[in-house]
Amino acid sequence: MNTPVHSRPINERIDWLMELSRKHSASFCSPENHLARQRYLAEHNTLIIAMKCMDGRIHLPYVTQTPLGIIHPFRNLGGIFDLGWPYLGDMLADTVQEAVSAGRRVLIVITYHYSKGATERGCAGFNCDRDAARAHAFSIRRQVEALFGSGHQTVYPLVCGFETDEDALVLHGRDDLSLDLSTIAPTEADKVGSRIAALYPDMPIPVQRDLLPLVHGNIQHITEIRKSDRELNIEHREWVICIGRGFDFLHVPNVALIIGPYSPDLSHPIRQAAGIIRANMESGRVPDDGFLLLSSAPYLEPGTQKARATLKSAFLSEFAANVVKQDFPELAERMVTRSGILNWPERRLEIQPAKPEPEPGNRVS
């Protein structure tokens, strides 16, 4: 089918999204990718966590040529986080503690993004204000230091800009120094290790060693991007609101607005997302025949964990739907809801049976 996805009827768009999820799981579980992860982890022991925006362009495994499943993402609308949020703080602390108990160090990559070619292609969460987005990333860095210490020998927070026109990373170090990887020629990549050491003199040698493959991968990726003739996605055409966790498969630009279950006030980002969807419909950027509200919660094992994930996803779906119905009643008439759970070891999204929809004349606003 040659019709762009964003122009298709809502049922066809949903089918496309589900197929995207299935392909992601199949790729993640393939023998080649499984072995690549095992080999990579045997060589590089540092746990890498990425805190990033929901924007589909911010695909760190892709732009660093890293096997899927190595980088652990925390994604949220606008890349806005606060480690004082109880759930987020507990989840991050538990993730770090699990790694430390296994004898691993942790590198937390705190990202913000922007476009060097056009301001309007920047982060919508900060009204495309690069300085504000960068300042927020540094505020998260200070919170990480407050939580895990400023010695950086076990947990190292690294602020990283993401320039979306060329998928180039900008590494921020001490004394306002930075390293823009788009300025490094592939022939100079082997010498970048000394520049990393100068940029992060307090970074443990094992963490430097495990950061270098991401740096080398990004330099190679930028070279490939410059040889290609890719279209820069300028228009926002989102037609999906995702709430919860387990949306790694959605690394497609301008499709979904992803809201992590982290903030104590989830209603605020849900209203923001619904407003964006409504604007997209009113402007004709997407059809006005419907949008998808998709919830997800991951689980590791069957039994209690799976049952808990099912309840959590159902709650998130109902909560978000009620916010939309209350604040955007006309938009709610075009809302299609799906509640899913994610089999984490296989990255497999399992959609739960839908509740019967009320008849149009009996809808509750």
Description:
This protein is α/β, with parallel strands linked by helices and 365 residues long. The protein has two domains: 45-227, Beta-carbonic Anhydrase, Chain A; 240-362, 60s Ribosomal Protein L30, Chain: A. It is 41% helix and 19% strand. A hairpin with a 4-residue loop joins strand 4 (155-163) and strand 5. Helix 6 crosses helix 7 (205-227) and helix 8 crosses helix 9.
Please provide a brief summary of the model.
41% of the residues lie in helices and 19% in strands. It is α/β, with parallel strands linked by helices and 365 residues long. It folds into two domains: 45-227, Beta-carbonic Anhydrase, Chain A, CATH 3.40.1050; 240-362, 60s Ribosomal Protein L30, Chain: A (2-Layer Sandwich), CATH 3.30.1330.
Rg, Cα atoms, Å: 21 Å
Structural class given helices, strands, pairing?
alpha/beta
Number of separate domains: 2
The best one-word shape is globular
Domain Carboxysome Shell Carbonic Anhydrase catalytic: 52-175
InterPro entries: CsoSCA_cat (IPR048539)
Organism: Marinobacter panjinensis
Protein name: Carboxysome Shell Carbonic Anhydrase catalytic domain-containing protein
Task: Give descriptors for this structure.
365 residues, alpha/beta, Beta-carbonic Anhydrase, Chain A, 60s Ribosomal Protein L30, Chain: A, 2 domains, 41% helix, CsoSCA_cat, Carboxysome Shell Carbonic Anhydrase catalytic domain-containing protein
Helix and strand topology:
Layout: H1 10-29, H2 31-43, E1 47-53, H3 60-64, E2 71-76, H4 86-101, E3 106-114, H5 130-148, E4 155-163, E5 168-172, E6 178-180, H6 192-199, H7 205-227, E7 240-244, E8 256-259, H8 267-282, E9 291-299, H9 304-327, H10 329-332, E10 335-343, E11 348-351
Domain Carboxysome Shell Carbonic Anhydrase catalytic: 52-175
Pfam families: CsoSCA_cat
InterPro entries: CsoSCA_cat (IPR048539)
